[in-house]
């Protein structure tokens, strides 16, 4: 799973049937210290995340393991909001 | 899911049986401001998208979650047409 | 799906049971104008493609959606031979 | 599967239902000599690995082949702890 | 599928239940002439390959299409040993 920061939201008026009713957030992958790296991507929000949150995203068929996303043509979900990250026993990131 | 722009169409006279009857569009991934990045790829259109549209594409087995593409050897679909994108509360892209 | 050019063939005398009887072609991804980019890879041919053809390849579980490849340990198939590609209403590639 | 080193742990207070109760470790891919390369990622621990261990991680649907992770929105698991690695008949890495 | 060379073996004393009894080889992707490129990765051997062999590896769910690997948390298998590779009608690689 990727560590990522929620940076925004996607508003789409035309959607495939099964994507209706999902909240589609824009994210960018981060390092374990919360530094943004990589390209923006879009994931379905499962945990009521907000802009600025550091989260974990599951990709591929992982994205369709929930009632909300089962049989949807989506390939990424936000599965958890990060509280803090520890590396070598030290806290390297903490939600403020 | 990727944010992408539809740039063209693929015309293929010889296709595997189950790919017949699908519209195969050419896309390039974009940033959240609609700037094109990355290599061109091809996806099945589920939402009647047109050249120039900013869309969301689902990849991998996500592409086979619809009646049109079930059991097809395809790995990407256009699942939504983007109306606008918001980053940090500001609209950074809007369809014209 | 990737746009790719068939560049050669793989001859393997020792194969996993379920890979026997498949034609394994070597490909390289191309741009929408047919320019070769990226590393070579191998895909099962579903459409009787030949060396030099521009084709579309499906990846991941997409590769096992056919009778020929069902339950095979393969992850890429050639699903279509490209006739021509249009970008912004202009033909940018045409098979000769 | 990737060769990777466990570098830390993720503490997440808000999780999708099915991710509760899993240990989510932070990893970085390594070479066959244990040199760290690539971006950090997060995987569910199946083998009671600890920080500093060299491990093998399975990705994609591989991550949901166990009772712990079945139908979870996760896409990576730690499937083994490496004891040693041999290249060309020589031990190039050994756990201390 | 990737063209790859077997460079070594992984010895892991602690493994997830379903990975026990599999031979886990270390590989590096190659070009069609056998030149090594890319990062090392690990795959389950289905065809009794040895160090030095040029092989084809299947990735993702392709890796679990065999009795040996069904329901294992593995994401790569060696599906064939390459005898020779032809590009544009010429043999560009042959096993010695």
What does this structure look like?
Five copies of one chain form a homopentamer. With 96 residues, chain A is mainly β. Chain A is built from no helices and eight strands. Chain A has strands at residues 2-11, 14-15, 24-30, 36-45, 54-59, 76-81, 84-87, 90-94. In chain A, the strands form two sheets. Chain A has a five-stranded mixed beta barrel. A two-stranded antiparallel sheet of chain A has the order 7-8. Chain A is elongated, with a radius of gyration of 14 Å. The two termini of chain A are 22 Å apart. In chain A, 55% of the residues are buried. The model of chain A has no long low-confidence stretch (mean pLDDT 94). Chains in contact: A-B, A-D, B-C, C-E, D-E. Strand 1 (2-11) of chain B pairs antiparallel with strand 7 (84-87) of chain C.
CATH top level of chain A is Mainly Beta
Say which CATH homologous superfamily of chain A is assigned. EutN/Ccml
Q: Enumerate the spans of chain A where pLDDT stays under 50 for 5 or more consecutive residues.
A: none
Structural class of chain A: mainly beta
- Give the mean pLDDT of chain A: 94
Number of domain units of chain A: 1
Q: Which pair of chains has the greatest number of interface residues, and how are they split between the two chains?
A: A-D, 34 and 31 residues
The profile of the biggest β sheet of chain A is:
5 strands, mixed, barrel
Number of contiguous helices of chain A: 0
Q: Which radius of gyration of chain A do the C-alpha atoms yield? A: 14 Å
Principal-axes geometry of chain A comes out as: elongated
Helix content of chain A: under 10%
Q: Tell me what portion of residues of chain A adopts beta-strand conformation.
A: over 45%
Could you tell me the CATH topology label of chain A.
OB fold (Dihydrolipoamide Acetyltransferase, E2P)
Spatial order of strands in the largest sheet of chain A: 1-3-4-6-5
CATH architecture label name of chain A: Beta Barrel
Oligomeric state, counting identical vs distinct chains? homopentamer
């Amino acid at each position: 799973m990727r560590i990522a920061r929620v940076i925004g939201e996607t508003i789409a008026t035309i959607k495939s049937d099964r994507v209706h009713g999902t909240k589609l957030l824009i994210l960018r992958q981060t390092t374990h210290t919360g530094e943004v790296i990589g390209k923006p991507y879009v994931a379905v929000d499962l945990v009521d995340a907000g802009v600025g949150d550091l989260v974990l995203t599951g990709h591929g068929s992982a994205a369709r393991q929930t009632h909300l996303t089962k049989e949807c043509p989506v390939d990424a979900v936000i599965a958890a909001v990060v509280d803090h990250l520890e590396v070598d026993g030290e806290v390297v990131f903490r939600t403020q």
